[in-house]
Amino acid sequence: MHFADALTKATKEKSPVCVGLDPNLQKLPEGISRDPEGMLIFCKGIIDAVKDSACCVKPQLAYFEILGWEGMKVFWETCEYAKENGLLVIADGKRNDIGSTCDAYAEAYLNEESPIDALTVCPYLGTDGIKPFIERCTANEKGIFVLIKTSNPSSGELQDLPIGDEVVHEHMAQIIEGLAAQHIGPETNLSCIGAVVGATYPEELKYLRTLMSHVPFLIPGFGAQGGGKEDVKHGFVPDGTGAVVNSSRGIIFSSSGTDWQDAAGKAAEKMAKELKSLF
């Protein structure tokens, strides 16, 4: 199934909640060992807890990479476990390069057999740093989320620089919309090419939705970073689809005690109810 169609279906059946899997070893709850085995137990436990409320998970590669090859083994096992439990998987690696190296990144994460459904991509090397990913998306029914306006405080140092009558992130949004419009799903008006737009900049989010009508949004910054449900509302298309909202710490570390799994499940369910109430 085309990625945008699969994403829309999942958000309608469950919710637009995306749970960020950021298994920081120093924050693992009581009773979980701070090693690859403990990381896998934690990730699988979170998946079990949120699978009925969330439509997708977003494993952050950095936390797995820090454990070397054992961590990467845990990463792939986590992705496979999420797929087995009916969740879409967005790998948060922010990959980018050019030429054969970019092609290798695209093949590594978005090949036909990969349990990964989508990958975050940095666009600031230009379109030749994006097109190899798009090729895999169309060939293998995968997706990408391109960084447009990120949630971090210093994002404006580059992304808000003026260029003529617009700023850099607005210009990038128009480039991505032009590419996205060429890859629309048969069941939706949305593309396999998505955008990352932070909840911490609600006015920019609202305007960027007008620039990217065919682009699904991945919206980080909800919860622990300060974004609320009213901040993310305008990232959706009018029928309440077209976006997923990510929360990481606010769900997976909602308790550091032995009730961590139950607490994560309740946090995801609460977030799902909040977002559903918007439409």
Question: How would you describe what is shown here?
Answer:
- The protein is an alpha/beta fold.
- Helices cover 44% and strands 16% of the residues.
- The protein has a single domain (3-276), classed as Alpha-Beta Barrel (TIM Barrel).
- Strands 1-2-3-4-5-8-9-10 form an eight-stranded parallel barrel, surrounded by eight helices. A two-stranded antiparallel ribbon has the order 6-7.
- It starts with a helix and ends with a helix.
- The relative contact order is 0.16.
- The mean pLDDT is 95.
The biggest beta sheet is recorded as: 8 strands, parallel, barrel
- Unreliably modeled segments: none
Please compute the radius of gyration using only Cα atoms: 18 Å
What is the CATH level 1 assignment?
Alpha Beta
What level of helicity do the residues show?
40-55%
The appropriate CATH architecture is: Alpha-Beta Barrel
The CATH topology, please? TIM Barrel
| Structural class computed from helices and strand pairing | alpha/beta
Assembly annotation: single chain
Beta-sheet strand percentage? Answer: 15-25%
The structural domain count equals 1
Summarize model confidence as the mean pLDDT: 95
CATH superfamily: Aldolase class I
Total number of beta strands: 10
Number of discrete helical segments: 12
